[in-house]
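Slides due. Your pick:
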Amino acid sequence: MIDGLKIYLRPVKLADARLLYKWRNEKLVRDNSFEDKIILYKEHKKWLMAALQNPSVNIYIMMDGEKVIGQVRLNIENKIGLISYSIDLQYRCMGYGKKILQLIENEIASSDIDVVKLLGCVKKNNKASQKVFETLGYQCEIKKDYFEYIKICRCCKC
């Protein structure tokens, strides 16, 4: 269960590269990802450095007190925020998936991130993420190989 000490998002920094790399290459994360190949650390670090410089990419680490729980990334294009998230293996099935999406929605609403629609693409075998998006009121569109979850942002940015 969620401790609830102080659950929050903090921006990712380059010092998080090893942690993000570990999460990215974890087998279940790769199985649920559309990019499922193992990547080399050198490639990952290069990608992260570019992502941190890109104003259309927002990456956060979710914290519960001092515990590092997971990551969420928002790639923005044409005011649509594509969500990608993962929870550390030891904290799965504890409600953190739902919490991380709530936190990114709150971050958008309270910041100058220019997003009017959120989008999550979930493989058909990823039941846990499907449940999270559905519980939070995302509308599901069935695609050939995946589900697309859509939510209009509740803030007035359009």
